[in-house]
Amino acid sequence: MRLRGKLAACAVAGAAALGGLTATASGASATPTATTAPAIDAPALTPAVTAAKSPCPYSGAHPILRLGSSGSAVEHAQCLINMYGYGIAEDGKFGGETLGAVRDLQTRCGITRDGAIGTNTWNCLHPDQLPNPR
Hints:
The protein is mostly helical. 37% of the residues lie in helices and 4% in strands. The two termini are 21 Å apart.
């Protein structure tokens, strides 16, 4: 199966797990089910909520952020980081605590561990994007 097919299959399976959908064997589509899945413990790096119900609403741009950055984009990133269980301060200041969490998430996502929040790291932080922390 090509990478795109694998990603689609993973996306469908993820949607099934979050939205009560049943994935088909081909991974190409999903159909609603009348029952909900039994409650299970989520993996440690699965965000506690879906993007549609995000406690981190934000409508601004996703600029490149690094140590010393500040503002609402940093606060949004800190909120997203906390969705993965880090418990860092959501103060809008990109300091050492945020830097450490960003580097850890970058490692878990398999992306460059530079401590900056660029396009790949934003995608890692957002639960509806790939790659997600595993």
